[in-house]
Amino acid sequence: MKMAYRWLAVLLMLGLSLGSMTASAAGGEFAEQKIVLQISDPNPFKQTLVLNVANNVLKYYGPDRVKIEIVAFGPGLRLLFKENANKGRIKSLVDNGVRFSACKNTIRNMGKKLGHPPALNPNAVPVSAGVVRIVELLDKGYKLIKP
Amino acid sequence: MKTTFKKTLLAATTAAVMGGIAGQAQAANWLFLQGTEPAGAAPRAKVWGFIQAQYQKDYSDPNASGGYIPPKLIGPDLTTQESFNVFRARVGVRGTGFPLDPKVNYFFLVEFGNNGITQPGGSFAKITDASITLNHIKGARIRMGQFKTPMSEEVYQGIAIFDYINFTSYAGQQLIERTPNQRYTANVGAQTLPVDQSNGGLTQFDKSVSAARDTGIQVFDTFKVGKWEHSYSVMVGNGNGLNYTDNDNNKDTYLYLSTEYVFSPKGGPFRPGVKAYVWSQTGKRLLDNTNDSTYNPTEHDRKRYGIGFKYLKKPYRISGEYNKAEGMIFVGPHSPTFDMNPSVPPGNGEDGKADGWYLDLGWYIPGTSWELDLRYDEMRRLIDDPFETKWKTTTLGFQYHFNRKSRLTVNYALRDVTAVNYGSGAGPNAQLDGIGNRLAVQLTHIF
Fold it and tell me: Which one in A53, B168, B192, B195 has a CA-CA gap of 20 to 30 Å to A83?
């Protein structure tokens, strides 16, 4: 009986820590800050800048205390191209709970110019429209930052 | 718990930043830095360039008759021993014309400065680079057009960050190729000052220097294995420098291999690492070396090859090269026919040999904007020829970096040149004995 209680305690602790890890990976249900970063500029320097900002915010708060979503649309969608030179940084930010949203309107329009849809980073999550996604996030209490 | 977490995050962030930069695969890999753009992160058109304004003073003595040979005068005009000059002023555009397709890049650069590229004919400007790169095939990127040919990294590196003002004797004479004049051009003797330029003075050239460039097609790429980067390049070109089209049916072949252990992916062109490379260039040149009124050129092999290394981890830099040359040995702007002396049997320049090496040391004084440089170089020109000469130069230098894009460079070169088969004052030494030291000051600004 004593042994059974011990196992139950171990399972409970395991469950709790797994739950905590999931919350952490997702940015945390109890995040103190919610931030949406907009990238819509053709200037490649802005790509570096938006990733740096996300990085710095993560560093300051810690992934369990901040939720960050980067919404890319217009010329800024190039950040989420499959072969983008920053793909290593994107992967690392995703691993720390940052979400990357790709505007479907832009994907469609770029596809017309390219003759095929652009190949996207596997970590990019398509959303119906970049601006609409930002408005939704603002309604949920996110703060908009446009570096 | 919080501290541990922060440490983990910091490590992850650092890895992310490093990974991001590594992904761009640029830095001091000159194949990539000069031939490609970062995928998906290149502008449609990035305007860039640099200016190098300089002052040089030569302390050589004239020969017994008061005449000066080219090494005693300031290039490219060779009319004085002291001069200010806008040596390089280059403006270019690079990027990806259609930003939605990151696989196609271009590179365009024009020289407006006064040097061997623009001096012949007093050109106002000259296109040095115009190329397109296709990045569609992994392991075999393709570049076509006119651009720098992979070779000795003293020459191949981005010249705006070259740590000295003047090239080593070997690079300046045997790598920055003087393409032969169309017709036989008589040697010019030592000139008294001021130099009479009505007939071109000491510069009798009808074409630009090659500037280590050629028009052709190149296949290249870099492979990363952990912290190692292995690169290759194979190129076929006209072998006719900056002259766009070929002047014969022969093509030059350029081969280049390098391997580098990258200490840290940060640092741009100053990325810390240790690198070794080997390269070769083989081709043929047409040379009209008969003093008559007929165009009767003969064909001569031109081979250049070498090995080199570079260690860079601030505050220290060590680099060195050993290079060899066979055929078309340039013996100076006063001898544009590639003969040192037309009165001796021809062939001492066309089919001659040369070699050269250098060792370069740099110390970036920690906590300051100062850098100290020291380079020793040697060249043997026309090896085993009666007119073999040995060139020894020790260059002392310092640089002050105002910021990452602007710096002052000061060099003082101690030179010793001797015709090894002649005594002091005899034969060519009557001219060479007087070659003295040279002061050079240069301001560089990259924009």
Answer: A53
